[in-house]
Amino acid sequence: MRLKKVLAVGIASALALGTFTGCGSTASTGNSGGGSQSAEADSGEIVNLKWITIGNGMPVNYDTWVAKVNEYAGEKIGVNIEMEVIPWGDWDKRRNIIVSTNEPYDIIWGNGNNYIADISLGACYDVTDMIADNMTGLTELMPEKYWDGVKVNDRIYGIPTYKDSSISNYAVWDKELVDEYSLDVASLTELESLTETFETLKADKNDYPVYVKNDGVYYIFDVYDQIGAGTQILGVRYDDQDARVCFTLEEPDIYSELETLHDWYQKGIINPDASTLSEARVYNMWRVAQGWESAGITSWGPQMGKDVEVQKVGDTILSNETIRGSLNMISINTKYPEKCLQFLDLVNMDTKLRDMFYYGEEGVNFEYTADGKAHKINNDWEMAGYTQGTFFTVTQVDTDEYNQWDEIKALNEQAVPSVMLGFTFDTAEVSDKLANCREIWLRYRSEVMTGVQDPAVAVPQIKEELMNAGWQDVMDAAQKQVDEFVGK
After folding, report:
1. How far apart are the C-alpha atoms of 99 and 92, rounded to whole Å?
2. In the structure, what pLDDT confidence band is assigned to residue 438 with cuts at 50, 70 and 90?
3. C-alpha triplet 250, 253, 257: angle, nearest 5°
4. What 3-state class would DSSP assign to 287?
5. Cα–Cα distance between 430 and 155 in angstroms, integer?
6. Which 8-state DSSP code applies to residue 103?
7. Do the beta carbons of residue 38 and residue 339 sit within 8 Å?
8. Contacts for 15 with CB less than 8 Å, ≥ 6 apart
9. Dist. CA 325–CA 112, nearest whole Å
């Protein structure tokens, strides 16, 4: 059945019952729509906004940097900004405290999990009807399907950072081995096709061709849209026009790959301690990474001190999960929702300001070269560039031979949209059962994904435990909502 481009209805019932309360109703009756606060903001005064985000902590030169940012943004749109950059290790705990205790902020960064949780709490502003008037630059730059990916019941509560917002996987090979064995890497993109080569490498090099940590060869699940359920074992295949909700471990493609992993483990192709490792080693003969082709030159190769050869694996896929990997949400308590959007639009679209956030303070962290590129003076800048805005208005760094942003943008444009794009599974009626099922999978995941366990034994055992925990109810609830979404 051909999918219709319809509105997301997956959580409509929850909204009607008040499961997701606060965001829509508060926004429509509170600060929104040009009230007195916004009128004052447009009268020429400088509006102060607080933006909370993640990174390596507050920059050491924050005071001088923010002074330059505020001078520029104040002149452009009448906004001054205060940043709180929370270290990676403190992020989850600190962010939860901020949102749950109503600490004052105007903009906060998050991802897909935060997004749904914040909507549930009524913590974020419904900005749907403000975007067209206040984000003219980003709406022109970013295709409409990316806005579809953040819709929840056809409403928008977060601004995606338009970057590598689709997912492309690449096999990353040690080029020295590719040349030595004259490998045709284009023919080695399926797991089963790699076995013979890996057996040879294992015997010749006395090393593990597949060296992984406890999440194993996790990319195999990327072809299944998790529909907001938050677990690898439930999803709809991205290209399934019938939109069938699956127990992914039993699907022929996933099951056969699990068999291959188990075969590799038994043959010593996978490192024997994989299921217990929390960190992988730096060097890999082969691995699969998400990114873009030139990352082999700019990132993957330099990281392990080797020249690498990369080969794309599968389609580039666009889904809610890929789009919601980085979002900025407006607080329901902000006095200036329009100014928040105008500021985010400026950060996205104004290259000078975009560079200030991405590279740091001009003259301290970076400088412009004579040919208009960005030269990093140091690597001390503490903010995470992917959290702030689009990649496609960032100035090219002078060490890149060609513009990787153009490559990423082209991948986005050719991405295959998941059939579930715009759908979010409302898990309210099965939340406890789903949580229990997630925990069951997590107990098995490391040994299944690193090949330790034989899927012929593990998958039926996992399924039995899941069924006892209410898995069928979860699957049925998901399928019912998916059917409504696609118009069955």
Report:
1. 11
2. very high
3. 95
4. strand
5. 23
6. -
7. yes
8. 24, 153
9. 6
What letter would DSSP give residue 43? Answer: T
Q: What is the pLDDT of residues 114-158, one digit of tens each?
A: 898 899 899 999 999 999 999 999 999 999 999 999 998 889 999
One-letter amino acid of 348:
N
Q: For residue 192, how many other CB atoms are within 10 A of its CB? A: 11
User: For 320, phi and psi rounded to 5 degrees?
Assistant: -55, -45
At 85, phi and psi to the nearest 5?
Answer: -105, 105
pTM of structure: 0.81
Q: What is the pLDDT of residues 282-294, one digit of tens each?
A: 999 999 999 999 9
SS3 state at 350 = coil
The pair of three-digit structure tokens given for residue 77, joined into one six-digit string: 């749109």
Cβ–Cβ < 8 Å for 396, 355: no
DSSP assignment, residue 124? B
Q: What domains sit in the chain, N to C, each tagged with a CATH number?
A: 12-164+325-394 (3.40.190.10)
**Cβ(288)–Cβ(219) below 8 Å:** yes
Determine the Cα–Cα distance for residues 464 and 444; give it in Å rounded to an integer: 13
Q: With cut-offs at 50, 70 and 90, classify the pLDDT of residue 28.
A: very low
Tokens of residue 397, six digits: 């760094």
Q: How far apart are CA 455 and CA 463, in angstroms?
A: 11
CA atoms within 13 A on the CB side of 263: 14
Cα 461 from Cα 486, distance rounded (Å): 33
Higher pLDDT, 421 or 20: 421
β-pair type (286-290, 47-55): unpaired
Q: Is 273 helix (H, G, I), strand (E, B) or coil?
A: coil
The region, left, alpha or beta by phi > 0 then psi within -120 to 50, assigned to residue 321 is alpha
E strand or H helix at 468, and its extent?
helix 455-468
C-alpha torsion 160→161→162→166, nearest 10? -80
Q: Please state, in angstroms and rounded to a whole number, the distance separating the CA atoms of residues 419 and 3.
A: 7
Q: Which string of DSSP letters, residue by residue, matches 356-403? A: HHHH-SBTTTEEE-TTS-EEES-S---B-GGGTS-STTSPPBTT-SS-
Q: How many C-beta neighbours within 10 Å does residue 57 have?
A: 16
Q: What is the pLDDT of residue 53?
A: 97
Strand 151-152, strand 158-160: pairing:
unpaired
Q: For residues 384 and 12, which has the higher predicted lDDT (pLDDT)?
A: 384
Q: Please say if the pLDDT value at position 395 is more than 90.
A: yes
Instruction: Indicate the pairing of strand 107-110 with strand 47-55.
Output: parallel
Neighbours of 427 (CB within 10 A): 24
Containing 171, the helix (H) or strand (E) segment is strand 167-174
**Could you give the CA distance from residue 480 to residue 477 in angstroms, rounded to a whole number?**
5
